[in-house]
Amino acid sequence: MIHAEGLHKQFATIHAVNGVTIQAQPGEIFGLLGPNGAGKSTTIRMITNIIRPDSGTISYSGVPFSDSIRSSIGYLAEERGLYQKSRILETILHFAGLRGMSPKTAHRHATDWLGRFELAGSESRRVEELSKGNQQKVQLIIALIHQPQYIILDEPSSGLDPVNQELLRAILDQLRDEGRTILYSTHQMEQAERLCNRIVLINKGEVMLAGTVQQVKEEHGGNNVAMEFEGDGRFLRQLPMVMEANIYPNGAELALQPNATLNDLLPHISQQLRITRIERVRPSLNSIFINTVRRTTGEAITTTNPTP
Fold this sequence. Notes:
Blueprint: E1 2-11, E2 14-24, E3 28-33, H1 40-47, E4 55-60, E5 63-64, H2 67-70, E6 73-76, H3 88-98, H4 103-116, H5 132-144, E7 150-154, H6 162-177, E8 181-186, H7 189-195, E9 198-203, E10 206-212, H8 213-219, E11 224-230, E12 242-248, E13 251-256, H9 262-269, E14 274-281, H10 285-297
């Protein structure tokens, strides 16, 4: 278990992390969610002992951070840290050696992970020859090769196309089922909704929502409609029965007034849009987060979630 309690961190006049508490259990994927600049990476750097909190406590299965704990952590930073001129296999083996793995064991595990991430045959290529997504896969291999008990991933799907995002999801599901503790930080709400068991949503360093994905959606459920269409849906925000509207390309998620019905909505939209799908839904995490931030800060927030 990774347990961080009441973390605070201030840089000059910026309170980057303000009272954040996280408790990620073995056998689950715990989502640390929020937009860019919310304080996610600062929180992770405190949890991994890269920087020290101004106040708060951090423990791993009840034990404070130590060198032995460090060796049981697999950490993927948001920033890339690969040697661009090095060859892929050499790079992986170098980091495996830093983790204390023997050359023989490291080579066996590296070969296995390269196959799982569909990079077999690329061992002698230089890092700089790889696409952004394949470089990310190499960094994921480096984070996982020593079979860590605690896996901490900061924006792990960055640079991955949808096919490789599904590949990563399958690997993380397997690691979760093996009993690993996985802390997954992202601003991609759709990915988090599909992957995570429990979540904390933060903005400007403060916890705004917490609980299981199901709990959060039930607590913030309402009279919601998802729709797909052809046309310009920006006018939907101005309709009298619409309280909140998250507009996407060719789609929208609407929070209607409590007593409003689809029959109230349809006459207002049928003349301006060609509707291809419309149904009542529970709000998505993306919708919940955007609307929560709007209500509490009055700001417009953009997260990565292309369709409702």
